[in-house]
Amino acid sequence: MIVWVNGTHGVGKTTTSRLVQERLPDARVLDAEKVGETLMDVSPSLPWTGNFQDWDPWRPLVVETARRVLDFAGGTLVMPMTVLVEGYWREISDGLAEHGIPVRHFVLHTDPDTLRHRILHDEVVGPSTFRLEYVDRYAEAARTWLHAEGEVVDTTTIGPAAAADRIASAVLAGEPAR
Question: InterPro entries in the record, alphabetically (predicted)?
C-alpha cells in the first residue's frame, strides 16, 4: 500500500510523513522528489519547464520506482509529494492502480495566512519564495479537484505529530481521517 501525503510546499509533508512511517508497521518513506532530482542530474540537461513534474518521464518513473520498492521490500510506502496538476495525479494514481497497488491519498491543508506565516518563519529552510509561489496554485487545486480526491487533514491548528496520528489511525482502521 501507498500512503501519499500531498499538500502544498511548506505545509509539513516531509515531517508528517516521517512521523506517519514511525506509526505504521513495516513502513518506509519514499520521497518522489528524489526521482525528479535524478532527472535534474541528466547531462546535458533536459529542457527546463520550471518544474520536473512537467517532464514526461517523471510520473511513470514515480510509479515504477514505487512498484519496484514495494515488490522488493513489501510493507507500506509513505510518499510525501506535492502534486497540484490533476492530470499528473491521475497518471500516477492510475499507474499505481494498474499494478494493483492501493493508495490512501491524504492532503495536508492549512489556511493561506497560516501557510504564508509558516513559510516566512520556517526555522529549518528559512523564508522561501519558491514555496510562496505555490500558495495560490494550491488554493486553486484544492478548490477545483484536490480536496475531492484526497482525505483532507487540516493542519491549521495542529502540528505534524497530530496530523501523523490522524493519518496513521485512519490507515490502520481502514477509515477516513478525522
Answer: P-loop_NTPase
Domain count for the chain, please give it: 1
| Angle (nearest 5°) at CA 11 between 33 and 106 | 75
Other CB atoms within a 10 A radius of the CB of residue 134 amount to 20
pLDDT tens profile 41-93 = 999 999 999 899 999 999 999 999 999 999 999 999 999 999 999 999 999 99
128: amino acid identity, one letter: S
How distant is the alpha carbon of residue 108 from its chain centre? 9
Does residue 82 belong to any structural domain of this protein?
Answer: yes
Specify the CATH number for the domain of residue 38. Answer: 3.40.50.300
Three-state secondary structure of 1-43: CEEEEECCCCCCHHHHHHHHHHHCCCEEECCCHHHHHHHHCCC
Q: Which residues of the chain have pLDDT under 70?
A: 176-178
Is residue 17 situated within a structural domain? yes
Between CA 10 and CA 171 the distance in angstroms is: 23
- Is residue 178 domain-resident? no
- Cell of residue 92, nine digits: 500516477
Residue 7, domain extent: 2-173
Residues 53/36, Cβ–Cβ less than 8 Å:
yes
